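Weekly structure sync, notes
Attendees: PL, DS, HV (note-taker this week)

Item 1: EBNA-1 nuclear protein
DS walked through the input record. Source organism listed as Donghicola eburneus. Sequence as pasted into the shared doc:
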Amino acid sequence: MIKTPYLLFLGDAPDQLAAKVAQGIKDWRPDNAVGQFRMEGCKADLGLTDMTLEEAKAAGAKTLVVGVANRGGVISPAWKKVLVAALEEGFDLASGLHNLLREEPDLVAVAEACGRELHDVRVPEVEYPIANGKKRRGKRVLAVGTDCSVGKMYTALALDESMRKKGLKSTFRATGQTGILITGNGVPLDAVVADFMAGSIEWLTPDNDDDHWDIIEGQGSLFHVSYSGVTMALVHGGQADALILCHEPTRTHLRGLPEYSVPSLQELWDTALPLARIANPACQVVGVSVNTQHMGADEADAYLAKIEEELGLPAVDPYRHSADKLADALAAL
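Item 1 (cont.): predicted structure, written out as tokens:
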């Protein structure tokens, strides 16, 4: 069990999006976020109090969480001095990077000497089965995106919140490091051996009550050549009854791939739905989630209205406006 509350380590994040792990924890579990630790040159800011290790310890923080998600998921050599100092100050460390804390001999040695714990949340702890595609009871909805990091997790968390407020049965199913750090459980999908990825999602979303919805956190994008594999595992393993299309309209190209343009929502619909219907022929696209954080209020409202008119679906920014429209769309199925 990872001890809370956290000091969120932003390191030398080159932009706000690089700190999406920390941002997610701050937004969805604010009581667990005592403050932030930023190194020189950090371009991300959560709006939390900047703290030294000593100040955070005095404020009650128990675990330093690596809140940066960089390309390749590596522990930067520049971070090591801070991570070692945190262990010596009495913090446990938690990370969702592919580069495991437990694989760094210097961190292991200091942790053992100081009696501290290293938590790697991106390590599968279950022997997942190979997917069998058999129909399961209950209902499932999956968020799919035009790109990576467009708000699929926020959509799922907000939708789960709206469903519960309306008295509907739902469970958020985390499939990535941030979701796992927020909820305390889930499947670290991109760390699962490829043959078992779809099976891990079947395991995560088992038989349930007929009126219960599993809200499956999306990952990657079918259009992103670097990460489309995890998306396909979710599409087939999730056996979704409903898809929610997720989009960030100010992007000029796919994240990390400047030579690839961002597809339209219609292109996403036309690509994702036939693939989802392989596992569940009854699957439907029920709504659109738009990340409007880089738009003013009037611009965002106008854009959402335009999408609703063009696609004939409810369109919301679930973090800005709530996901009630999406919850209503699911309740109507």
